[in-house]
Amino acid sequence: MRILRLLFVLLTAASCVKAPQETSTTAATPSPHAGPVRIGFSMDTLKEERWQRDKQLIEQRAKEVGAHLDVEVANGDDAVQTNQAENMLTKGVDVLIVAPHNGEIAASIVEAAHRKGVPVISYDRLIRNSDVDLYISHQVERIGEMQADYALKHVPKGNYVLIGGSPTDYNAILLRKGQMNILKPAVDRHDIKIISDQFAREWKAEEALRITEDALTRTGNKIQAIVASNDGTAGGAISALEAAGLAGKVLVTGQDAQKDAMQRIVKGTQTMTIYKPIKPLADNAVDAAMKLAQKQPVATTDKINNGKKDVPAILIAPIAVDKSNVDVTIKDGYHTHQDVYGQ
Question: Measuring CA to CA, which of 91, 173, 186, 292 is 20 to 30 A from 204?
Fold first, then answer.
C-alpha cells in the first residue's frame, strides 16, 4: 500500500504540458477543487483596438467555461504589471495568463507564480528566460516573413524602410527576424536597399512618423516600400507620406487588421495588413488555463525557445489581407461592413 501511494504522488507531480501531434482546444472538465477555477489575466495595455478584443473574448470564454476571471491592465508600466500579478497571486488565482509589457522583466512574474505553485501562460508575447509553462500566440516570425514577402513580390527593387515595434516586446524582434529571412537575399543581390531599420518605442505611431519623415528627408522622398510591423506604426508612416504627397504611392505593410487600417486599405493608402484571428487565441488560452489549473495535460504542436527552455506552444496561423480579400474580416465577424467601408 505504501508503494502504491508513492507511485500515485510521483504520477500526479509529473509535468502537465505534453506535445502530441494535434492541438487540443476542448474545454476543460469541472475543477476538482471547491468553486470555479480562478484565472488571473495580466495585460500590458488596452490602448490598441486588438487588445480590447482580447480582453472581451477572454472574458467571454471564461464565462462559458465557468471560470472566475480577474483582469488587470498595467498601461505599459512594468512595475505596475509586476505588482498587479503579485496581488492576483495573493488573492489566490489558480493560473496566470500574462501578456507582458517587457518579456524580460515578466520573468519575475513567472518565478513568483511558481513559488506559489501557480502555472503561467505567456499570451501573445513570449516571456523570456523563464520557466513559463505555455506560450499561446500567432506565428509571429511567420508574420514577419509574410509582410516582407508581400512587399518584395510587389516592389522587387528600390529603397526600403523597416519600422519595428517596441524593442522591449520580443514579438518585435521575432517579426524583424522573419522580415530579414526574406529581405536579406534581396539586399545581398542589391535589388533593394534598406535605408532605415529602426524600432518604434512602445509601438507608437508618432515614432513611426518621425522615422519615416527622417527617411524621406535623407533620400529626397525616394522610398518605394515601408515594412511597418503593425497597423499603428503603419498609420504613423502613412501620416508622413501624406504630408509629402506620397500616400498610396509607397507600399506600406501592417499587422492586426485594425479598423482604421482596413479603411486605409480600401482607400489605398495602406497596402496590406496581417489578420490574426483573436477568438481562437483567447479560447485556447482560457481552455489551457483550465487544464493547467487542474493539473491536466495541454496538447501542443510547437515549441519556441525563450532563452532558458523550449516552451511548449500553441501557434495560430495568420492571414495576409489586401484590397483583393479585404472582406475576410467581415466574413469572420471581426469587422462589420460599415467598419471597413464606412457605409
Answer: 186
Domain borders along the chain are: 12-138+277-316, 140-276+320-341
Name the residue among 91, 32, 17, 105 with its Cα closest to residue 303.
17
H or E, element range at 9: helix 2-12
d(CA 27, CA 5): 30
- Of the candidate CATH numbers 3.30.70.20, 3.55.50.30, 2.70.50.60, 3.40.50.2300, the domain formed by 140-276+320-341 belongs to 3.40.50.2300
Return the C-alpha cell found at 262: 482596413
Round to whole Å and give the CA distance between 94 and 89. Answer: 8
Residue count of the chain, please give it: 343
Using the 8-state DSSP alphabet, how is residue 119 labeled? -
pTM above 0.90, yes or no: no
Which segments of 2-156 are extended strands (E)?
A: 17-18, 38-43, 68-73, 95-99, 120-123, 134-138
Rounded to an integer, what distance in angstroms lies between the CA atom of residue 45 and that of residue 60? 19
